[in-house]
Structures are given as C-alpha cells and as structure tokens.
Design brief:
The protein is α+β, with helices and mostly antiparallel strands. It has 4 helices and 5 strands, in the order βααββααββ. A hairpin with a 2-residue loop joins β2 and β3.
C-alpha cells in the first residue's frame, strides 16, 4: 500500500467553502467507483478554514500520472475536476507548476524506530 498526503486551499469565501462541503457530502457514484478501479483504496479530506488536507491510501501499483490521464480523459471525472478547480487555489510552495494539490513530505511517524 502507498500513502499520499496533499494540501490545497479553497477560495476563501464562505459560499465557496459551503459549496465544496456540499459537493463532498454527495460525491458522484461514478467518481467513487473510478477511484477504486484506478487503485485508490481510501481517500479522506479534512478542512480547517479554507485549507484542505487529503490523505490517500492506494494499491502498490497506483500511479498518479495514470490517474491524472484518466481524470483528463473521462468526461464525468473531468466535469468533477473542473467544478473543484473553480473552488480551489494552489497553496504557496505547491511544488512543481504542474501540481494542483501540493504533495506533502512525511516529517514524523510515531512508529519510526
């Protein structure tokens, strides 16, 4: 299993934040199924103010580039991403210019030796 941690900001507007939360209370079934078929075993998103933190647990063969290709080419996934990107904005220091969500580095694990 692989684990990915990422962060992004929502546009800092109460209406935008409410809309984002509402979408995530009713994620489209097609997107949930697609995540599983692409190797995402579990995804969790937390929010504080307008900052989002996402934790993904994936299969060992999960490839973020393959998932990006899928979301760029599947009409329903593309529609979801287009909606979300209108509500989100990159955080400072977001990594590569091509990164939308900023990958986070693990700096502590209580199970380290």
């Amino acid at each position: 299993m692989k684990i990915f941690a990422q962060a992004i900001d929502l546009i800092d507007d109460p209406d935008v934040i409410k809309k984002y939360d509402e979408y995530h209370k009713n994620v489209w079934a097609e997107d949930l199924e697609a995540m599983k078929t692409q190797g995402i075993l579990r995804m969790k998103i937390w929010r504080v103010s307008n900052r989002l933190f996402m934790l993904m647990e994936t299969s060992d063969d999960y490839d973020p580039d393959t998932y990006s290709e899928y979301t760029d080419n599947d009409p329903k996934a593309k529609e979801w991403d287009d909606i979300m990107q209108k509500l989100q904005q990159k955080i400072p220091g977001a990594g590569k210019p091509t990164d939308w969500w900023a990958p986070m580095d693990l700096v502590f694990d209580s199970e380290w030796g």
